[in-house]
Amino acid sequence: MEKKNSLSSKMIQYNINLKRIDENIRKVERRHEVLKCQFEKIKQNAKEESMLDVNKMLNHSFNNQEVSLICHIFVVYLLFVSTYHLQ
Fold first, then answer.
1. Sign of torsion over alpha carbons 20, 24, 25, 29
2. pLDDT reported for residue 12
3. Taking the model in full, what pTM does it have?
4. Where are the beta strands (DSSP E) in 43-83?
5. 3-class DSSP state for residue 65?
6. Can you tell me where the transmembrane regions are (predicted)?
C-alpha cells in the first residue's frame, strides 16, 4: 500500500510540476511577445529617426548648394556690372 501511495504522491507531484512548467512556459512566451513588439517599435523609431537624419543632411546639402549658387550668380553679376561699367 505504501508503494501505491508513494507512487501516487509522486504522480501528483509530477503533475503539479508539469503545470508549473507549463505556466512558466506561457509566461516566457507572453514576455517574448511583449519584447518582440518593443523591439519592432524601437526598430521602427530608429528607421524613422534615420530617415529624419537623412532628410536633415539632404536639406543641409541643398542649402549649401543654394548658397553656393547664389554666390556664383552674384560673382557673375559683379563681373557683368564691372565690365559694363568700364565700357
1. positive
2. 93
3. 0.51
4. none
5. helix
6. 67-86
